[in-house]
Structure formats: C-alpha cells, structure tokens
Design a protein that fits this description.
The chain is α/β, with parallel strands linked by helices. It contains 11 helices and 9 strands.
C-alpha cells in the first residue's frame, strides 16, 4: 500500500494525535498518576493493536516456530505489546523531564567506550530498535558524548519535522541515510571529530546493496553501512544496547569493541562482519524477545532467492 494511501494517512494522523495528547497529559500530571492512566488504557491499546497482533505472531512464528509453543509465542506477543506501550509512555515522560534520565538509566561497560575513543577515531555504535533506544541516546549525551544517529526519514512528514526539531534540542545529531553521498560525508566527519555514530542494523535493507545474513535462522537483507564505514575509516565498532532493569529503570550495556574479521576479498570481509554484528543483535533478541521493536517490522520482507549473491555464515 502506498504511503500516501488515505488509510495510511489516517493511521499516521491517529498515532501522531495520540502522542501529542499523551505528551500534554504528562506535562500536567506526575508519573504515579500517569501510570494509573496507563493501566486504564491498556485494554484499549490491545484492541487498537489487534490488527498488528496477527503480523507480530507471524514474525514470532518465523523466528521461533520450531523452538517455542504457540502458548509461548502468545506470551511473548502479550509482553511485547505491554512493553511497547509502557516504553512509549516512559519515553514521553523522560523527554519532558531530561534530568530523570540519569536517575532511571544506568550504564554498564563505559570503560569499553572510553578505551576506543582514546584512539581519536570516533566509534561506530551498532545497535537495534531494542528497548528504549532513544533513552539510550539521551543518557549517552548526558554522559558527555557527542552523538550522531544515522536514520531514515519518517513517512509522516509532519511528525518528522516535529521529532527532528526535538532531537536537535536534546542534542541528537541526525544524519539521514538519503541522499547517500551526504550521509557518507557527514558520517565520516563525525568520526573524524571523535564522536559516536549510531547505526541500527535490525531492519530490512532491501535487495540492492543489502547483505543477506542469517537472523533467527532465516536469511535477512541487512545494511552493510556500519562495516563499510569501519573498514574505510578504521573507526572501532562497539555494540551498545539498552534493556529493562527493574520496573521503571533501564540499563545500557556497552560491549567491548567488535573485532573485525579479515578476508582478502573485501566484499566477503564485509559480509562476514555484517553477519557477526547481526549475531550480536540476535543474542539480545533471543534473550529479551519482548524488548525488540522489530516484531512489527517486515524484517524478512526481501526474499533471499531474489538476491542470493552472498552466503555468509
């Protein structure tokens, strides 16, 4: 369905309106009161997401069909929708009270980041739409690190303009993936300034330019940009994720630098390292499946049979 189809436009309008309403309410009430409101609206949220539930269950069967029972998959889906709703509310709350982020988000492995930045080559942070990843950006910024995020533009132009302005105010430097030449130039400049370059590697990249690697035991087209930048600039690659750590708190996990696999064939080297990065993401998805936002995304949309030029293990 085209992004300008009336149904798509109506859905975007509803989602945008709900966001603005919740944001207005949060400015009025303290968080304990808002938690009560959240519990009241949970049943309505489940009804609203009913159309998405079948899609999420389909993705869960693709990922875990041979490992988990239907009951277990439904449990993950329920936990996912609950976590998604709660996470959105918490994020809106934190966006309006940035100082609370330090209290609610802890960091593990900060020494790994300090170590790689000492080389003055910046750091390519590989991550995913996992946990409250926007809160992760904000906490890292509050820790004193210049943060750049490579991303696609939203389909909702009105909301994109609002969120883009909000990101600027919060200190998140946005680098749009298109136009490609500009993206490359801005990304390399950020690394040369010894800044962080966040790249989320858990969405379908399409056929042209995508690298097919195993994700949850099925081939998935994956963006190679992080590895290409690493090879070109010699910047270190560092995995970073955020997950729940208690009822209302989060923990950022910064792993040691990912060692790149070398190969005489440059293309093969990129494929091997994209696969390696994807295995790291899969490790988190398997351990905390309800925290991965990708269940509502068409991760396996591009068929491997259409573009089967590579076969990294």
């Amino acid at each position: 369905m085209d992004k300008n189809h009336p149904i798509k436009r109506i859905n975007r309008f509803i989602a945008r309106s709900v966001f603005f309403v919740f944001q207005a309410v949060i400015r009025i009430f303290p968080y304990p009161v808002f938690r009560i409101i959240f519990w009241i609206f949970i049943p309505f949220g489940y009804c609203f997401m009913l159309v998405k539930r079948g899609f999420v269950m389909g993705n869960l069967r693709t990922a875990f069909g041979n490992e988990k029972t239907e009951f277990e998959l439904k449990k993950i889906a329920n936990d996912y929708f609950y976590n998604f709703g709660k996470g959105m509310i918490e994020l809106i709350y934190l966006l309006n009270r940035p100082k609370k982020i330090v209290e609610n988000v802890s960091i593990e492995g900060l020494e790994n980041l300090e170590k790689v930045l000492s080389a003055n080559k910046g750091a390519i942070i590989i991550s995913a739409h996992f946990g409250s990843f926007i809160a992760m950006y904000l906490r890292i910024i509050q820790q004193g690190y210049k943060t750049n995020v490579v991303m696609r533009r939203m389909r909702d132009n009105v909301f994109e303009e609002y969120i883009s302005d909000l990101r600027r105010k919060l200190g998140i430097q946005t680098i749009y993936s298109l136009p490609q030449r500009q993206c490359i130039q801005e990304s390399i400049k950020a690394l040369r300034r010894n800044e962080l370059l966040f790249m989320l590697m858990d969405q379908n990249f399409g056929g042209e330019g995508g690298v097919f690697v195993d994700f949850m035991d099925k081939k998935a087209s994956t963006a190679p940009g992080a590895i290409v930048f690493a090879k070109r600039t010699k910047a270190p690659v560092v995995p970073m994720f955020i997950r729940r750590d208690g009822k209302d708190s989060y923990k950022i996990i910064i792993e040691p630098e990912m060692t790149l696999e070398e190969d005489e064939d440059d293309k093969r080297s990129i494929e091997l390292n994209v696969a390696k990065a994807t295995r790291i993401i899969e490790r988190y998805v398997r351990q905390y499946p309800h925290e991965w936002g990708g269940w509502m995304h068409k991760r396996w949309k591009t068929e491997y049979s259409e573009f089967s030029s590579n076969d990294p293990k």
